[in-house]
Write a structure and sequence with these properties.
The structure is a single chain. This protein is 35% helix and 16% strand. It is an alpha+beta fold. The chain has one domain. The strands form two sheets. It has a four-stranded antiparallel beta sheet. A three-stranded antiparallel beta sheet has the order 4-7-6. Strand 2 and strand 3 form a beta hairpin. Helix 4 packs across helix 7.
């Protein structure tokens, strides 16, 4: 007879506590993801259930909805559930200075349900997604963050503190632009096909 004890799945609620506040989208605990990064308001937590990321402290679902609303009536989100995010980690281009809530399609679905809305349509935005994935790979070799897209006026950059670092970042962004693009194209294409593209456009409807 086996002496092995039965195993039991641990529910996410078991991790709730002061260090793991509730997700504003679904209520499950937020767990640590990234330490404080330059230009961000604090450490980054993520929800293992809906995927929402929170930079610093959260003031609850209504604040998250207001930030989502600032993206427009049919918002395009930087998808925290993208392949680019998984591969880039702290270098993910969606971690722009001042970012607070890092959305996924599922987290948006749960948030807008509070206002009797549904996500009626989702569409991969290939050009924006490719740009974000390309920048994510460049971020792995620069001191600053989002240097190339910032120079093109497509994102807010967090520049390196030292002048010599900024010069290296500019040179690296030029020299490695094509190699990074060649890597980014298949990654973002695969992500778009399976619903994990770096940029997703959404359309809402009332129930």
């Amino acid at each position: 007879m086996s002496d092995a004890q039965p195993t039991h799945a641990v529910r996410l609620e078991a991790g709730a506590g002061p260090d793991n506040p509730p997700c504003p989208a679904c209520g499950e605990p937020l767990f640590g993801w990234l330490s404080p990064q330059p230009g961000l308001r604090g450490p980054v937590r993520r929800c293992e259930s809906c995927g929402l990321g929170v930079v610093g402290e959260s003031d609850g679902p209504e604040e998250a909805l207001r930030e989502l609303g600032r993206l427009g009536g049919s918002p395009r989100i930087a998808n925290r559930a993208s392949f680019a995010t998984s591969l880039g980690g702290a270098g993910w281009a969606g971690l722009e200075p001042g970012a607070h809530y890092l959305f996924t399609v599922e987290s948006v679905r749960r948030l807008v349900a509070r206002h009797d809305q549904v996500v009626r349509a989702r569409r991969w935005a290939p050009a924006a997604g490719l740009a974000a994935t390309w920048q994510t790979f460049l971020n792995s070799v620069t001191f600053g963050h989002n240097v190339a897209l910032g120079a093109l006026g497509r994102a807010e950059a967090a520049k390196a503190p030292q002048r010599w670092q900024r010069r290296i970042d500019a040179l690296a962004s030029i020299v490695l632009a094509i190699p990074a693009l060649l890597v980014a194209i298949p990654v973002e294409l695969a992500g778009g096909i399976v619903g994990r593209g770096a940029a997703i456009s959404l359309r809402f409807e009332l129930l």
